[in-house]
Amino acid sequence: MLLLVASSRPGVEPPVPWTCPESHPIKGYVSSESGLRVYYLPGSRFYEEASPERCYATEDEARRDGSVPARRAEPVDARTGDQPERRTGATGTRVEAFGSLRPGG
What we know:
The chain is mainly β and about 100 residues long.
């Protein structure tokens, strides 16, 4: 006897390209650059440009499906998760630094 079990993956498929239903407005997208599954909240950067592969009702539902929030607009140090320190250089240009540049520091 063969028993088929349907996968109960969180979220729903988008009804048409580029949109999600009102009940599931969070767009789930697989990044072609990294292969990561990310999600975009309505009103967030790149939300309108994202063509969803999956739509979610809540962030928790998106995370249960293996998605992470889309990258923040500001850079983040991958080692520590810190935002960069902003300074103005001698020429008046903005400089962003992530602490020490020494190995291990």
